[in-house]
Amino acid sequence: MKARTRARSLALQVLYEVDLTGHPPGTAFRQRLEQEPLGSPRLEEFARAIIFGVLPLRPYLDKYIAQYAPEWPVEQIAPIDRNILRIALWEMAISDDTPTKVAINEAVELAKIYGSDSSPRFVNGVLGSLAQHQNDIRQALQAVVAQLPTTPPEQSKSS
Q1: Contacts of 25 (CB under 8 A, 6+ apart)
Q2: Residue 91 and residue 84: Cα distance in Å, rounded?
Q3: What own/partner pairs with CB < 8 Å and gap ≥ 24 does 121-127 have?
Q4: What is the pTM for the complete model shown?
Q5: 49/10 Cα distance (integer angstroms)
Q6: Domains defined for the chain, CATH in brackets
Q7: What is the mean pLDDT of each run of 10 residues along the chain (159 residues)?
């Protein structure tokens, strides 16, 4: 598995755990890093950026996922698929670090590893629809991010 894919995988595992259990994300992230070190501060920061970028935006990301996967209410999407979609949408709309096609391909790869047999096709289809509206979604989500309170890094690391 490529280095950034490993970082996404770790972020996915943390988001999945937080989604299902409500565990504090900082604690889940630290525990996951202890179990599966990423080997570089740059990769740890990338995983951290995904986790703490996605978490405050979950309701907004879910709104767009629901809009472009209307036959699947977000709460009925498998938790692993839901979190893969959240990560990819966050990368497509908020992170300037990942090209859209790469975000989609990485999401499909994570779906192949962690999801069901139908997950890769489902994830690819939803993200393809979202990508067609990427500019509008990006503008709306970036406006939301601008309104979010900023948390000092030391608090987000331990929360």
Answers
A1: 14, 15, 18, 51, 52, 55, 156, 159
A2: 11
A3: 122/69, 122/72, 122/81, 123/81, 123/84, 123/85, 123/88, 125/69, 126/65, 126/68, 126/69, 126/85, 127/85, 127/88, 127/89, 127/92, 127/103
A4: 0.91
A5: 12
A6: 3-158 (1.10.940.10)
A7: 94 97 96 96 97 97 91 90 98 92 97 97 96 95 89 46
